[in-house]
Structures are given as C-alpha cells and as structure tokens.
Design a protein that fits this description.
Pfam families (chains A, B, C, D): ACT, PDT
Shape of chain A: elongated
Protein name (chains A, B, C, D): Prephenate dehydratase
Order of helices and strands of chain A: EHEHEEHEEEHHEHEHEEEHEEHEH
Strand content of chain A: 25-35%
Largest sheet of chain A: 6 strands, mixed
Pathway (chains A, B, C, D): Amino-acid biosynthesis; L-phenylalanine biosynthesis; phenylpyruvate from prephenate: step 1/1
CATH class of the largest domain in chain A: Alpha Beta
Enzyme class (chains A, B, C, D): lyase
CATH architecture of the largest domain in chain A: 2-Layer Sandwich
Keywords (chains A, B, C, D): Amino-acid biosynthesis, Aromatic amino acid biosynthesis, Lyase, Phenylalanine biosynthesis
CATH topology of the largest domain in chain A: Alpha-Beta Plaits
Structural class of chain A: alpha/beta
Radius of gyration of chain A: 23 Å
Oligomer: homotetramer
Chain lengths: 305, 305, 305, 305
Amino acid sequence: MVRLAYLGPEGTFAEEALRRLAPDAEGLPAANIPAALNAVRGGEADGAVVPLENSLEGAIATTLDEFAWGEPLLITAEVLLPVRFSLLARPDTTLNQIKRIYSHPAALTQCRGYISRELPDAVVVAAPSTAGAAQEVALPGSPYDAAIAAPIAGQHYGLTEIASDIGDRTDTMTRFVQVARPGTPSAPTGSDRTTLVVFLADDHPGALLEMLTEFSVRGVNLTRIESRPTGDGIGRYFFHFDFEGHIADARVGEAVSGLHRICGEVRFLGSYPRADGVSPQIKRGTADPEFAEAAEWLKRVRAGG
Amino acid sequence: MVRLAYLGPEGTFAEEALRRLAPDAEGLPAANIPAALNAVRGGEADGAVVPLENSLEGAIATTLDEFAWGEPLLITAEVLLPVRFSLLARPDTTLNQIKRIYSHPAALTQCRGYISRELPDAVVVAAPSTAGAAQEVALPGSPYDAAIAAPIAGQHYGLTEIASDIGDRTDTMTRFVQVARPGTPSAPTGSDRTTLVVFLADDHPGALLEMLTEFSVRGVNLTRIESRPTGDGIGRYFFHFDFEGHIADARVGEAVSGLHRICGEVRFLGSYPRADGVSPQIKRGTADPEFAEAAEWLKRVRAGG
Amino acid sequence: MVRLAYLGPEGTFAEEALRRLAPDAEGLPAANIPAALNAVRGGEADGAVVPLENSLEGAIATTLDEFAWGEPLLITAEVLLPVRFSLLARPDTTLNQIKRIYSHPAALTQCRGYISRELPDAVVVAAPSTAGAAQEVALPGSPYDAAIAAPIAGQHYGLTEIASDIGDRTDTMTRFVQVARPGTPSAPTGSDRTTLVVFLADDHPGALLEMLTEFSVRGVNLTRIESRPTGDGIGRYFFHFDFEGHIADARVGEAVSGLHRICGEVRFLGSYPRADGVSPQIKRGTADPEFAEAAEWLKRVRAGG
Amino acid sequence: MVRLAYLGPEGTFAEEALRRLAPDAEGLPAANIPAALNAVRGGEADGAVVPLENSLEGAIATTLDEFAWGEPLLITAEVLLPVRFSLLARPDTTLNQIKRIYSHPAALTQCRGYISRELPDAVVVAAPSTAGAAQEVALPGSPYDAAIAAPIAGQHYGLTEIASDIGDRTDTMTRFVQVARPGTPSAPTGSDRTTLVVFLADDHPGALLEMLTEFSVRGVNLTRIESRPTGDGIGRYFFHFDFEGHIADARVGEAVSGLHRICGEVRFLGSYPRADGVSPQIKRGTADPEFAEAAEWLKRVRAGG
C-alpha cells in the first residue's frame, strides 16, 4: 500500500486532501511540513501531501522554501480543497454550553462572524493546529468546550459537529500538492500545470520582465508567481512560477530551456494534471505539431533543402 | 511629541526600528500589526512602525494585506534593521546554568547553530514574541533561564547579554516602514522608493507582463513584487510593487497613471527616501527635464508650431 | 481659389488624386515631386498632392526623403486612388493598327498580360511618365500609336480610350497625400491617421523594439513602417511610421512624446482623416476619458488626496 | 571557371563589386537585375552579383521583390562598395571642352556640387545607367562629351579619367550580394549575417512587435528591416530582415523557427560572412554551448533525471 506523509495530526485539512488525492493510501501524520517532506526524501514515505497556497492566506512559505532549497522532490498531483470549518464539541454538548473555543488563529479569524453572532461571550484560545485543537477538546477534562476544525477532525476524535461551514467566506480553498521522489513526470493530459523555481543569475533591472517574456513568446500562460527572499539581504529574491502546460509540451520545454539559459538556476518541480481540468488556449504557432514542423523546416533550411 | 505605535511589547525589533526612524518619538506598543495600524487610523497615534519584509522569512503577509484592504495609510519612511539576536538572562546567570531557552520560533530557528554548539542540552520553548520571552524571563521565578531577543529587550527588562549576534546568519535584515494617515508625500530626495498595490481589472494571460511593461517603458525599475490572494479563490491575485523613484517624478507618474488606466484599482502607498540611499540609474529620455521638454514639444506640435 | 501643385504634366494619376481631394482647386503641374513640394514651401502653391506609396511598387522614396529632410510640411489629407490604366490613341485608331506603345515602364510592366494577349506583336517603348506618353501620342506625326495612361490623360490630350482597366491586377492602388505649410492639424474625426519621421539617438540593438513598445503600451496601432537610409553609411536608417489616431488623442500624444524623449529626433508630419474611414479599436484604458481620469487621479495622489 | 551574372553593361558598379567578391570569375553582363538572377535560376550562370541597398538611395526594390517572389536563391556573400564617381571622357578631352554630360540621374544628383562648381554651364542628360553612359561617350561622334560613372567603366571603354571621386559625399556605399542556386549555406565564421523574407499570417496589430520579440528574446540583433507591399492593397506588407548570426547558430535557428511558427511564410535567403567583419555581442545565455547545455538539461528534466 502506498504510504503518504501529511501534516498531522489526524484530522487536518491535509489529511482530507490526501483522502481526495489517494483514497486508498496509508496516511503517515508528520509533525510539520519539513518532516512530511523529509519522510519522502528518506524513503519512509512514498509521497507526501502538503499545502502550497490558500485563497485567503496566500502562499505557504515553508512549502515554497522547502521546494526551493531542500533535497529535490517532484510534484505529481494537486487538489483544491474547500476550507469548511465545523464547530466540534464532545457529544451532548449544546451550543449554549460553549464558553471556551480552541482553534488555530487562522481558523478563529476566518470564523469571526459566526463567533460574534452565535457565541459572543465565548473566550477564544489559540491552538497550534485545528486538528490539534480537536484532539485536545476530545480529552476528558479538557479546559476547552469546542474546537473549530475540519469535519474530518470530528470523525477522527469522536466529536459532534454542532455547526458546519461556519467560515465567514464559504469559498475559501487550499491548494495541496502531492509530491514524490524525483522521477519521470506522468504523461501530459491536455490539462496540466508545471511548477518551477527560478534563481536569477544577476539581479539587474528588467530581469523579471525578461523571464515573463520567455514564457509569453512561446504562448505559455502563468497562473501564479511568488517572490521569496534568497536570504542574502533585502531586495534579493527568487521566484516560484506555476504555468499552463506540461514539460513534455514543446512550447513549455522551449520556454523553460530559455529560462535555464538566462537565469542562474532553474529547478523543475513537476508537471501534473490541473485540479480544475481547464485546458489552455494554445496560441497560434505554439502547439506541438507546429513546433515539430518548424524543427523539420529548420533542418531542411540548414541543410540547404 | 510624536506618538508612534509599534508591534509590542517593549523591546521588540519593531521598537528598535522605531528608535532608528524617530529617536525622539513616544512609542506606543500594540498587541499586533493591525492594532498598531488602527491606532494610526483612529488617531490615537500619529504614525506606526511595522515590518514589511524580512530577508529570511519574506513578506509580512499581515502588513501587505492591511495596506491593501484596510483604511488607507501612507508610508513615509523605511529602515533596514539588522536582525541581531542576543542571549539574555537574569543578572548573575552564567552560560552553563542555562537549561531552558524561551523565544519566538523564528528566532530559535535562526539561532539553531549557536544553540547546538553552545547549549546542546538546553530545552527550547516557543514564545509568542522575542520581547515577550525577555519579559517573561525577567520575572522572578520564571521557569526559563534565558531568552533570545533583540539587544533592546535586554535593556528594557534588565537582563544581561550573555552572548550577542548569535544568529546563524549575521546579515539577516528586516525592512520596517513608518506609516501615517494619508497626506502629501514628502518631497523627492533623489533616492526614493514608491510602493503600490495593484488589483487587476480582469485576469487575462499576459496581465502581469503588461503591468511590468508600463514600468519598463518609462525606465522605472522594480525592486520588489509580491503576489497576494484576492480571497476570491485559488488563482486570483493582486500585487504589491516597490520601485525606484518618487510619485512626483515624471516617469513614475506616467507609469503609475498607465497602471491606473489598465488595471482595476491602483492604491498608492507612498513615496519615501530609500534606506540604502541608492540613487537610481535614470535611463535616457526618462528624466524630469526630458519629460518636461517633451510635453512642451507636444504642445507646440499640437498647436501647429 | 486654392492652388495645389502636383506631379505633372496634366493627366497624371496625381492630377486625378488632386481632383478627388479638392475638386475645385486649381492644379499647378510640377516637373517632379520636389518641385511640387517646393512650390508649397515657397508660397507659389497653397498645397501639393504627392504619391506616398503604391500597393505594387511600395513607398515613393523621393516623397519619404523630402518629408524627412526638406523644409517641414504638414500632411492634411490622403486619398487611395485605384490605378486604372487605359489604352489611349488618337481618334479613329483601331486596336489592330497599334504597332508601337509608349508608356512609363511601371505601367508597361503592370499591363504585360493585356499587351501579350491583345497586342503580342507591338513594340513597347519606355516614356518618362504615363501622362507624358499620352501627351506625346497626341502630337500629330508621333512615332507612337498608343499610350498607356490614366483615363484622365485621355481627356486632357484628346485621345480615345480603346480599352480601359487593362492592368494585370485590378486592385492596384496608390496612396496620395495632400500637404500644406506647417500649421495646426485639423480636428480629430474619430478615424484619423498620423505620420511621423523618427531618427534614432544612437543605433543600439533593440532600438526598433523600444520604439514599437512606445506605441503598443499606449494601444496605438501602426499601419506602416518604412526604413530609409540616413546617408551615413550602410546600416544606418531612420524610420517613417503611420499609425491610427490623431496627435490630439491622449494615447497618441503620450506615445509620440515617448518617442521624442528616447529618440534623436521626431518630426511630426501630420494627423489627417483616413481615406478608408476605418475607426480604430481602442484598447481598454487608452481612450481620452481614461487618460483624463488618470491624470486627475495622479494629481490627487500627488497632492495627498 | 565560375560564371557570375551582373547588372551590365561592362563597367558598372556591379561589375566592380563582382571583381571584389570573385576576382577570377567570368562576368556575364545582364540587361537588368531580374535577368541576372534568372541566369542563375536557369543555369546559364553559377551565381550573380546584385545590389541590395545603397546608403543614399535605400533598398533596391527590384532585388528585394525578386528575392521574395521569384524562384528561390541563396545569398552567399556580400560586399560594401564605395560609390566613387569619375568624370570620364574620350582621350585628349580637357575639362573646359565638356559641354554635355551624360549619366544616370542618381549619379547626376550625387555629383551636383562638382558639376555646379566645375562645369556650371554644362548640359546634363539622363542615361539609363552609368556604364551605358560611358559606353555611349566612347563612341566616335557621340553627342556627349563626358560620362559620370565608376572608374572601372573608364577602363572598359577606353576613357580618360578627368576627375575622380567627384560625388558630393565621399562615403556613399552600395551593398551588393552574391547569390547562387539554393544549397547548404557555408559554415559560420563568427561574423555572419542572415537574411529572411517574412510574410504575415494575418495582419493584426502588434504583429511586427511579435516578430521583433522572437529575435530579441534569443538575443539576435537586427541590422536592417524593410517593409514591402504584398500587392494586395495599401496597408498590406511583408518584411525583409537582416540580422547578426548564422542559421547554424542555435539562437538564430530558434528565432527563425519561432517566426516560421507564428508567421504565414518565412523564406530563408542565406547566411553569409559580413563584409564589415564585425562580431556580434552575444547576450548571456544565447551562445551555442548554452543552448546545447539547456537542451541536455531539458532532456534530463523530462526523463526525470
């Protein structure tokens, strides 16, 4: 059975993402993101499921930095997980018995409307994770009456769901990716995404514009860009790029080779099916057969044909 | 006396930044970044000093989002603060008496080398902030023997500096900005930076390239770009830009107007002297007198002169 | 009565163009293009009508160079004239009596199909101009039996039109422009064209790309580009640009000012109604009200509003 | 012996260019440029030498159009020929005996200063070519006293050089190219030029900018651009490009393939040593070894290495 590490404890959104990506896998909860990824690198796990970005909070810096600096890994899949918070309590607890709520600060922030409306007098306490909060609340004698966490956490820890979908926004999503040890990317599906890390060779004005031009001239559309500090002082950054297409696509290959030539270092993080199933609009002259035909033509021209 | 809010408690790096920016100001410690900014918005403070980015950790998302979504504020100054960690203990404590170290997780991470070398057997415990750790250590009967915090925290809480500059990297910096309620930016100094938030009108392929071209065609060099989620789902972002020059500069004004025309919303966050004092290289044809001369020329041409 | 110089003698396509542009004007035939333009410069004529380009032959280099180097003139109108050749002979001549055909080489080339089909045994002789050929054929005792020229030449010189529209292509066009001494361009009509001459400041790689970017970033579409030698050696060129819009348009004014700033010299040749009446597609953010609103916005931002 | 056609008669600048390019070749004078090129196409000549552009007059449209529309040919060499005009007369003629000067109008124009200074009363008469003028003057009983032509024409027709270098500008140059039937281009020399003809697929705004970006993104510098009408009406053009580098260069091959993909038709006209011997500045990341390394890298990445 495939073993996949994830950000534990049991009951996290990461576990829920893992269940969607690989329903039959064995989940290995890890203490934090680096630990989950190291389990893959070290061979204790076959893969890992980690969050990459959240539609409210933004990029998960730890994940980005692990992908950039740590021993290389390959992204093999992605999933967009709706972030649905539930109010979880020990069985028989009723709403008006809840005096102390325990959860991760991000969850408390995102459920502020519900809390002030339904539990205006409750005390809220910060927990290290939403699943950890549920775990704590489940303990007999816990000082907390309820946790705010993913529904899956309630199932894991035997808590009752007093209210569901209590976030202020119901459309919040987290994008999780599944990673494996480096290897051949799976075949293109026609709806793929590719992720890169790019370090500049020298940080000159216009360097970012040059990078984007390498993409645009081959008709490759970016879907995400993140800058991260290199650690060498304010003003020095490297970049994460997500874009449409697969490394096996000719237009992607040429664009990525172009970045490799003009940049200091390009780290390929993977090509994998898009969770949203969207197929890219391919600009005239940038489809694979057009690249193949142009290569043939160039060969003939060079040979004097 | 000018009153400036900052991320408290007393003894934080933010307070140190404030002292550098405004040695004579009265500091008002705030519980968190939004609280510091709200003190300005509400008039309890004349300004605030908040971190914007760190050379190891990256952007401070809370600050970016507050600047983008909160009631408008104006950045009036910046400072680059070296992040120098000290090992602080109650007077008379010696290095080999330290069994339990208390600090913010980021500080503990950044001092990992020192701890494993000098205090390999010490237990490290996570604190909500470095200054809070120092405050706690200073209490008689504290369960912690030492804090890792800014030197200023030692002074504030009467702790002895057992070791200084104990970070693994000695070049880590945090960039703090001083903000005020909206008003006229101070006059250009010749070495200025401008900060913007830009929301797209519609998220089409090439939108980022178009934005960067608005800058480059007027010879305005970007110094930082950050993407942040709009909250409307994965794949929807807005942007923070830092760039060389002052909003009063002709080339900056035209570039920013160009963004305003083609984007959904542009929020001006301020033009202020650069902390590094670097003067920009001004590309041929983009200096103020060249813009003025071109405007005169155009007027004549339009009038048939 | 307005007096307009044109490339004579009477009966040229230039005269036909003049009649379309200014039916009531008095035409002053000139010996060549520079002479026609000098008549305007010197005040003997109020304007001139000269060819700028032909859809088969390309740009009229003399016109381009006169506009670039000569004393400045202003283009005030354009017309697209179909080039229709007629076979013209003295009255009573029949097709099978035609043994010697006289015309300008370009006309002979463009009527090659007709000649080889209908007059395969005729001798063709090169004339200095089509109208001159008609003039010559009209003389009693002329050694030539027929001229190929514009229909108007037949009317002028009392010749019979034996065949009309005898060109191999029936869609050949010449674009003529009307010029005047410098003055205020006429008001925008919503379907205008603007013409510029641009000399580079220094001929560096990418200079042309930079110029085109000045246009594209303001959404100004080029309709023609010509390079011409500066005279200073092979590899040194200046440029003629035609593009959509009027110098009074904000987007055109900003683009043209941008060129003025980054180039060595920009000579404005005029904004005038397009002969084809096509209205430009105006890119989002580049219409006049959007420029005006952005200028207001910038003013407020600079003032701290 | 290699036989090269050229624009005759003997004594033209074209013959002089031919002598420089191929001193030992047999020259075959042709009546005009198409005839010279057709001699190559039909096999009567091994190659031809034709003018491409002149530093005063600009492009030679006939040559450009022959290269674009005629049966394909390959440019194999270029030469920059100084245009030096001599005043040539029958032996024993003295300057003050010259009453009638015969030459091509372009030559008469370019020697206007000399004529008005030294022969203010002479009548000037237009000839079909400078060499033809010399040939005519050499005939006993010619109505002309002197020709203005290339020095080589004097040698050919036994004329005396009364004055040399009489052009108003002494730096006028004509660029001639040598062409052959299609075949493999000669090997790169490190200082090469490549010439292309490009037809657009559809004439949309920004098409030219896109073409230039294909070059610039691979660091290929243009040295000449010419637009020519397609014949399908005013506003429809195709383009001639000269640029640094050889079709065998990786950066050139990729740029040209890119044009081939996005344009309607690209016709390769040849890669050949530059007459000026200038070596291009190769932009970081665009040298052949960098392309080769990037291709290897991409292969590994795709294979999961």
